[in-house]
Amino acid sequence: MPEGDGNGNDGVAEQASRFEAAAPDHAGHRQRLRERFLKGGADAMPDYELLELILFRALPRRDTKGLAKKLLAHFGTFNEVINAPEPRLKEVSGVGDSVVTELKLIRAAALRLMRTQIVQRPALSSWQQVIDYLLAAQSHEHREQFRILFLDKRNKLIADEVQQQGTVDHTPVYVREVVKRALELSATAIILVHNHPSGDPTPSRADIDMTKHIVASAAPLGISVHDHIIVGREGHASLKALRLF
User: Model's pTM, two decimal places?
Assistant: First the structure.
């Protein structure tokens, strides 16, 4: 018979000790990951470990490694996980509102930083940053969005607005509303943007005709259309570079 203090305390202590020995060292693992990140940055970590770090706040009492690996297996890449819509994220077992919020927060913060960079400099002199921002903002959308970047006479960004939300293959664009909004903001130039959820950014005949209508309506009012950019998962297309208007 095992020795005890007569009150059953030794048995309780022994059970607690066994539980602690069997429990995963979540706290220690999390601290080691944080230290690796602070020392080597994101480049020193595989995608699943970076996702683990992001999920720490959403799941403070759970091991996040398994979920991080499930998300990557389901969507394929870190980028696809961060950009996945809420209903698709919740297809993965273990993903609830807190995980969705954390992933959407990361995406929103990244877009805010990228937009801040293009606000600070003339758009035409930081064109690649503009394209990078537009790809990040719209290339993973599952419905078409029509966006306009409004610029002042120095080509600095006044406003970045999504004007219309459409379907998987169409967005209604009203030329009068585009020109009216540019006048309201005292913009002297605009950049038109929309996405192709199919992934292929090749301009359609409707895209080209709509662009020409806006150019023709805006020009008499002193508003230039610098470009119409179409983005998709496969890249982007510039109607200006393709000489389509």
Answer: 0.76
Domain that includes residue 26, residue range: 9-110
How far is CA 179 from its chain centroid?
29
The CATH number of residue 233's host domain is 3.40.140.10
Cα angle 26, 31, 33; round to 5: 95
**Domain-embedded: residue 61:** yes
Residue with tokens 């273990």: 94
Q: Say if CB 197 and CB 231 are below 8 A apart.
A: no
The 8-class DSSP code of residue 202 comes to: P
How far is residue 104's CA from residue 85's CA, in Å, rounded to a whole number?
A: 9
Partners of 215 in the β-ladder: none
Say how far apart CA 70 and CA 78 lie, in whole Å: 11
- Nearest alpha-carbon partner for 158 in 115, 197, 200: 115
Chain-centre distance for alpha carbon 62: 25
Per-residue pLDDT of the chain (245 residues; tens, 9 = 90+): 444 455 545 554 454 444 344 345 566 788 888 888 888 888 889 999 999 999 998 998 888 999 999 999 999 999 999 999 999 999 999 999 999 999 999 999 999 999 888 887 887 778 999 999 999 999 999 899 999 999 999 999 999 999 988 887 788 899 999 999 999 999 999 999 999 999 999 999 999 999 999 999 999 999 999 999 999 999 999 999 999 99
User: Looking at the structure, do residues 69 and 159 belong to the same domain, yes or no?
Assistant: no
**103 and 152, same domain (yes or no):** no
